[in-house]
Amino acid sequence: MTRFRTAALLAAAAALTLAGCSSTDTSPTAEPTPPTTTVESLSAPESPAADPATATAAAPTEAKDNPNTCASTELMLTAGQAQGAAGSAIVPLVFTNSGGRTCELHGFPGVSYVAEEHGAEVGAAAARSGEEGPVVQLAPGATASAQVRAIEVANYPAEMCGPTPVAGLRVFPPNSYAPLFLPYPTTGCAMTGPGVFQLEVTTVAAGG
């Protein structure tokens, strides 16, 4: 009888031990699975700038060339009647609209001496003289002009000027990237410096 009770007590104790172990079991399924909404909430919210279309619209744009500007291919360049001045000559640059549409000229031409039509520039380019004028509407066949003042470079010491024969003027119409050539044989200064001025140009104005 005593052995039977001892065996029963041992069996009961074993059962209690097993029950205690099962109540503290930490299997993976016992951990709650994080809800999907919690994971999504950790993601950065989309912003309008992240949208490629929005980003393109917000980006700064480069200024476009004015389609109304007279192209060099629409212009014929000639020299007006030159006039002498103290130590210089005034040469009108006359632009004639040889195209079939009305176009615009606005601002200063770019002017420099060249050794030959397609040759290298000689010395410093023309400095701007005066203020920029209004836009000139140039109808087909109409003219506009700018005044170039060509300094008599013989007035400079040779060692300061570097006198060099030139064939004429390379002229960029305002806001154009293609030059025109105007024959004007003379002498320019190959050397540049703060005390050497050989060309000045005014803004374009209506008429020749």
TrEMBL record:
Keywords linked to the UniProt accession: Signal
Ranges where the record places region Disordered: 21-68
Designated name of the protein: DUF4232 domain-containing protein
Source organism of the structure: Rhodococcus kronopolitis
Taxonomy, superkingdom: Bacteria
Bias-annotated ranges (Low complexity): 21-61
UniProt KW Signal keyword: yes
One Pfam family linked to the record: DUF4232
